[in-house]
Structures are given as structure tokens and as C-alpha cells.
Automatic annotation (TrEMBL):
Residues 38-57 bind DNA. It holds the Pfam family TetR_N. Transmembrane segments: none annotated. InterPro entries: Homeodomain-like_sf, HTH-type_TetR-like_transc_reg, HTH_TetR, Repressor_TetR_C, Tet_transcr_reg_TetR, Tet_transcr_reg_TetR-rel_C_sf. Residues 15-75 form the HTH tetR-type domain. PROSITE patterns: HTH_TETR_2. Keywords: DNA-binding, Repressor, Transcription, Transcription regulation. This is TetR/AcrR family transcriptional regulator C-terminal domain-containing protein. PANTHER family: HTH-TYPE TRANSCRIPTIONAL REGULATOR BETI, HTH-TYPE TRANSCRIPTIONAL REGULATOR RUTR. Signal peptide: none annotated. Gene3D superfamilies: Homeodomain-like, Tetracycline Repressor, domain 2.
Amino acid sequence: MYSVPPKRQRGERAGLTREQVLDAALDLVDEAGLPSLTMRALGARLGVEAMTLYHYVPNKDALIDGMVERVFTAASPPASPRGDWRTYLRTYAHDLRRVLLLHPGVLPAVVRPAVTPATLDSVETGLRMLRWAGFPLGMAVDALNSLTLFVLGHTGAEVGISSASGAGSPDWLAGLDESRYPLLLESVRTAAGTDDAARFTFAVESLLAGFAAQLAAA
């Protein structure tokens, strides 16, 4: 979190950091959505003129890239040539989901390519960990990308499924014809397979097992 400085006078330094600006932008999009993000709105939130923000980010695209950077760097564990690649990827996946659930407003932007040095450093760290474990470079890129895209998709679905009574909800499913959908209705009654965290863990472990099999075959 950041502390909002008092409204500065003309000619007075803002006293902000780039990190404070990016964190304030994350909070803004969490509250009002990505379309609400403007330099004017962000400046008002921080108590500065919009033009002041250009000292920290050159334009709105750079601001969004910086928000993506904050998400991925927060979910990038340290790598070690003596570490276990499964533990590394498992930690990365769960941390990325956790950060995205904290900042769901940035989800529409996280599919942007990694462009900031800090975001690229996170990618390089993950690839280095896999290369140390013996993954060929192409397989390492595929594994890291596949896991990342799964986390983004799963978390996006978790955030999007928020209605308790609309189409697709448990209440809605309970009204289906049981003679046609007996297994779906049993799942609703028993809550089998309905825990998001458990499903996420199951899928991550399945991906890791598949990566291990591919590595062994290579």
C-alpha cells in the first residue's frame, strides 16, 4: 500500500516514487476497473497534478506495463541451481494466483507482453531455473508460458464467476432436469469439484507431472 501525500503547491516536488504511483494505479483499477484509469484520475488519487505523473511513467501504456510488472515481480520466487524446479513453479503459480486475486482489476491487462526490465527479469529467472534443471530452452519457454496462461485463465474465471443466482450458478444448475444431467446435479448437491483452490492445485500438479514426463522423454 502507499500513503497519499498532501496536495502539493506549484513548483513543489511531488515526493512520490514510481512504486507508489503503480500501486495507486492498481488500487484504482481494482475499485473502478481498467477503463477508469486515466492520468487525471490517478493524479487526483495521489494528490498531484496529472502532468506530475509523467515524471514517473512516460505515458499510459507505460503505466499499465508497470502495473503488470508489479504483479509478476510479486510472484517471482528466487531461483537457485540447487533448487527443485517443481517447487519453484508451484510457488510461482500459487503466488501469481494470490496476487491476481488481490488485484483483479489488472487481469484484462496481464496478457500484455513482458516489456519492462523488471518483468523481463522475472521471466529470465524462471527460464534459468528450468534450464538448470535440464529443460531444453524451447521446452522451458513452453512450460513457463503454459503455466502462466493457465493461472491467468483460471484466476480470470474465478473473478468472473461472482453471481450466486444467475445462469450457471449452483441455484441455476439445481433446476436442471436430473434425468438428463444426473452427474452435474450430484456435483451441485455434494459440492464435488467446486472448490476453486482445490481445482487450481489439482491442475498445477497435473501440469508439473506432465512437464516432468516431457523432461524425462527428452
